[in-house]
Design a protein that fits this description.
By secondary structure, this protein is an alpha/beta fold. Helices cover 37% and strands 16% of the residues. It is built from 13 helices and 15 strands. The strands form four sheets. It has an eight-stranded mixed β-sheet. Strands 11-15-14 form a three-stranded antiparallel β-sheet. The chain is globular, with a radius of gyration of 21 Å.
Amino acid sequence: MRPIQKSKKLADVCYDIRGPVLEKAKQMEEEGHKIIKLNIGNLAVFGFDAPDEIVHDMIINMGNAAGYTDSKGLFAPRKAIMHYTQEKKIAGVGIDDIYIGNGASELIVMGMNALLNTGDEVLVPAPDYPLWTAAVSLSGGKPVHYVCDEQSGWLPDIDDIRKKITPNTKAIVVINPNNPTGALYPLEVLQQIVEVARQNQLIVFADEIYDKTLYDGEVHTSIASLADDVLFITLNGLSKNYRSCGYRAGWMVVSGNKKPARDYIEGLNMLASMRLCANAPGQYAIQTALGGYQSINDLVGPGGRLLRQRDLAHKLLTEIPGVSCVKPKSALYMFPKLDPKLYPIEDDQKFAYELLAEEKVLIVQGTGFNWIAPDHFRVVFLPNSDDLTEAIGRIARFLEHYRRRHGTA
């Protein structure tokens, strides 16, 4: 029988958060090894439970959740999302501008599938959450990565964005708060991005899934609140702020200048109808989550577990020789840098593989987030303080051995 091969559309698709190194980790676990996983922001496995009232409301409504819903979602959660956009000062959003999906991830792919023709370009940050790059490629487009500058706290390089715009550029992706760096973009940077989009007639895709996971009193600004003459697609959901990753309840909001986008919006409606609807039980969690007690504030505020673990992870990582790290203002991740003089890494996936094999710690290499050099890696700071201390201690030991092997100690 002739070989059955994957689609050529997948040639440039990569998602190393669940890539080859994770497969090796699974194999090691099957052999009896205990792996400390710092690779993915899956909150529940680290004891971050969904709020009780969300769970309760899903259970209460389970009897109503067996049928299909409207293709865009149930009315009540969409109304709650509409009210949330008003809180975020995003103007002109009606019920029909809101799509509920099986997590924001489904809607990211839907948004790109409805937009892109072969050869169309989308500006995506480097580093990025790799689903964005993958979704552009899978939709026939070309991801063009603009640089976020580590020296300025991982803020987007506006000049680099401008240089990379061509007649084929259709959109720009803004991940704020940022995964993997934990950066939070100030108002002036967001305004500059809006101006670039305005001048070049670009759609702005705003990934704001961590907009409540903020530290040190920081405040998040939705980029869609800054203009009404640019088309914005804003994505959010329950996975992170409400520790409900497995419920797959996300949403997409179309706002701004919708008049010239009627055909594109028709495409979104077609795709929403083709998948019939998002899962109904997860939809029943949305209204309660957005309108209920915001327990995320207890986790990120003074004395909160996420804040404590962020500070601990940053302290331990930056005490390692040759490791520097911009302290995150938001989200669940750090993106430390390895000094190439001490760590002459040529293949950072191999580096992550060796760390896993020697110390049973699973990370994601920086190039897995489309970073331009093999000198970074991402860690989550979700494990409790003892496990985090153990994990980073193992990383420190591995890096000490690495320096010795390469004569840079």
